[in-house]
Amino acid sequence: MTKVIKCASCNIVIDEMLAYIQNKVSVIDEDTLVRICISSFSKEEIEKSKLLLFESVPGNLIKRKNKGKEERDLADIVQVFKSKEPDLFPIYVARELERLPPVLFDHLDCTKLLKDLLKLQEEMKNIKSTYVSQSQFEQLRSELLQMKNDSLLPNPENVNKRRGAWVLDSGPEMNLAASSANVLNVNSNQNNYGDNNHNDWHVVQKRKKPSRYRYTGSAGLCRDSEGKFKAADRNIPIFITRIHNDTTDKDIIDYVYNKTKEMITLERISFKYEREYKAYKFFISESKSTLFLDSGLWPQGIIFRRFVNFKRKITNVEATPSVKRSVDHIRQLCHTSDIIALQETWLLPSDLHFLSDIDPDYGYVGTSAVDTSTGMLVGRPYGGVAILWKKSVLQNVSIVQCDNARVCAIKSGVRAKVIFSV
C-alpha cells in the first residue's frame, strides 16, 4: 500500500485497509471488522495504516507492543473512526480493489443478527398498532371535507338582502370596490322600505327566573298624606372616624344641623388601643341615607360609611373574662349600681389592690383562689370573688372574715345586713 495525496483541495489518500474500515465501520461490529482485517492484511500494513491515520487526524498515537499488538492497533483505528467527526477524515480510496476482503458468513455473529431481527419485528408491530391505515385516513379525510362543507354560508337566496353586510366576502381576498358599491346601493334601497324593516325582527329578552320565596311582599306607592296610617320610619347607623381630638360633640352636632337641618345623637366608639383621633356612631332616617353618605357633606379627611357591627368569635377564655379585661364594663355599672358582686376575678393575692383602682367612690373586698405557695404558677389564673359598694350609700361597712377563699362577705347598717359574693 502506498500513500498518495491527489490534491490539497480534494484531500484524497490511497490506502486499502483504511478505505475498507471507513466504509464498513458503520455496518459491521468492531469484533468482526478486526477479525476480517487481521486475516486480510499483514502486520506491517496494519502498522503503516495506523501511522497514516494519525498523521491525517489529530490525536495521540499509542504504540502497542507484545502479543496481540495487531488486534489492539486495529481497535485503535476503529475507535478513531467512531469517535471523530467524519469531516475531519480525508477520503480514503483503494487502488487495488482485489485486496479488499469480502464479508462472509463466517465473519458474522448469528446471535447479533437474531437480536437485530427481533428488534426489527418489535418496531414493525409498534408501527402497525400506532399508525393509521389507508382506509382510516380516507375516512378522516371525508369527515373533514363534510365539516368544511357544513360550515359554508347558506344559499344567498335565503339571506336578508336588506342589510348591507350580506354583500361582503368573508374570504381572504375581497373586492373592496365592488363591495362598497353594493353597500351603497343597498343603503339607498333601504330608504324606500321606511319603517317596515322592523316588522321582520322580534325582540328577544332573557326570561326572568321565578323567585324561590313564595311570600315576597311588595311596598306601597300611595302618597296620600291624610290620616295617621303611614309606614314606620326605619333608622340606620352611620359611622364617622378620623375626627380630631380637639373637636367636641357639640361641634359635630352643630355642623350636621347647619348642613342637613337634622339633629343627631352621637355615640362615641371606644378603641381597643389608644388612637390619635376619635370615632362616632349615630342613627339617621333611612330616607336620609343618600344625604349623609354624600362625600360633599363631610369635611376633608373624615371617613364615613354605614356602621357595620362585626360579630367577633368568642373563645372559651373570652367567655369568662377577668376583672382586668372587664374593667370598662364594671366602671359603667358603677354609674347605675350601688353594690356590685364579682366572680371569676382571676386575681392573684398580690393583685387584689387592683379593685381600688376601679372607682375611688367605691369600697372593696376580695379574695383570690390562686395558691401561690407552690412556686411558679402553671396555666392561667382562676377563681376569685369580690364585692364593690358605694361609700356614700353604704356606711359603717365591716368585712366578714370567711375561711373559704371562694366566698367573701360584708356587713352593713344597724340591722346588720350581710351581703355575700360566691
TrEMBL record:
Sequence ranges assigned to domain Endonuclease/exonuclease/phosphatase in this UniProt record: 324-396
Pfam family of the protein (one): Exo_endo_phos
GO molecular function: catalytic activity
Gene3D superfamilies: Endonuclease/exonuclease/phosphatase
UniProt name for this protein: SFRICE_027239
Natural source organism: Spodoptera frugiperda (Fall armyworm)
Lineage, opening ranks: Eukaryota, Metazoa, Ecdysozoa, Arthropoda, Hexapoda
